[in-house]
Amino acid sequence: MRKLIEKQIVLATHNIGKVKEMQTILAPFGVTVLSADDLKLSEPEENGKTFIENARIKAVSAAKEANMPALADDSGLCVHALDNRPGIYSARYNEPKKNGFMYAMERLNAELGDTKDRSAHFSCAVVIAWPDGDTEEFEGRVDGRLCWPAKGKNGFGYDPMFVPDGFDLSFAELPAEEKNKISHRARALKKFTDTCL
Ligand code: IMP
């Protein structure tokens, strides 16, 4: 497993919600985190078939373009009664309405109809890539259930309709520190920090 010697990395994401969460999680390790927006990096086409493939595409492209180690995450919500949809299409599920995530959440809820099985999980793949093309890859997941109506104002994306196992509050009702202890992203990043830092 390759260690991260460099103390500056770029996050290969333009999603401000993810940038904030990852900066918070990585801050204690003394790693300076730049965003893809800071460096005006291009956005490669995410044409992978899995979270890992998409994270690898983003990390490898950003590391080459920025000429520094790049960390990418690809994540999404997998609803068990819907054959794990929207999965890698979680962000795209909100199109054509890009303002807020109410459209995607209503769409999911409508697809579920009166299905009793509301179980779901968030999945996250984290890939660190170096400019030479080398990568290390990690995955994390958090299980829970979908609630309706959606509730809470914190977080982003599908957080208001996801209640993690062991809690009654949605991810959007939990304080950020609580979500960051148990989330799919926190778990994948913990594997990254345990291994590479
Ligand atoms: P990506 O940028 O292609 O990885 O998009 C992931 C999408 O999955 C996001 O835009 C959200 O819709 C959803 N998602 C991933 N992680 C979370 C989370 O922690 N909370 C809520 N939604 C999430």
Sequence stretches where pLDDT stays below 50 over 5 or more residues: none
The first-level CATH class is given as Alpha Beta
State the helicity in percent bands.
25-40%
Mean pLDDT figure: 93
Rounded radius of gyration (Å) = 17 Å
The largest β sheet comes out as: 7 strands, mixed
Strand fraction: 15-25%
Q: With helices defined by DSSP (H or I, 4 residues minimum), what is the helix count?
A: 5
What is bound: which ligands?
A: inosinic acid
Instruction: Based on Cα principal axes, name the global outline.
Output: globular
What is the fold-level CATH name, i.e. the topology? Answer: Maf protein
Ordered list of secondary-structure elements with their pairings:
Blueprint (H helix, E strand, L loop, with lengths): L7 E4 L4 H11 L5 E4 L15 H16 L3 E10 L5 E2 L15 H11 L6 E11 L5 E12 L15 E3 L11 H7 L1 H13 L1
Parallel strand pairs: 1-2, 1-3
Antiparallel strand pairs: 3-4, 3-5, 5-6, 6-7
Helix pairs in contact: 1-5, 4-5
The structure holds inosinic acid (IMP).
The site of inosinic acid has 16 residues, from strand 3.
Characteristic key phrases:
alpha/beta; Maf protein; seven-stranded mixed β-sheet; 5 helices; 7 strands; 29% helix; binds inosinic acid
What does it look like?
The protein has helices spanning 16-26, 51-66, 102-112, 176-182, 184-196; strands at residues 8-11, 32-35, 70-79, 85-86, 119-129, 135-146, 162-164. By secondary structure, the chain is α/β, with parallel strands linked by helices. Strands 1, 2, 3, 4, 5, 6 and 7 form a 7-stranded mixed β-sheet that branches. The longest helix is centred in the first third of the chain and has 16 residues, at 51-66. The model has no long low-confidence stretch (mean pLDDT 93). Inosinic acid binds next to strand 3.
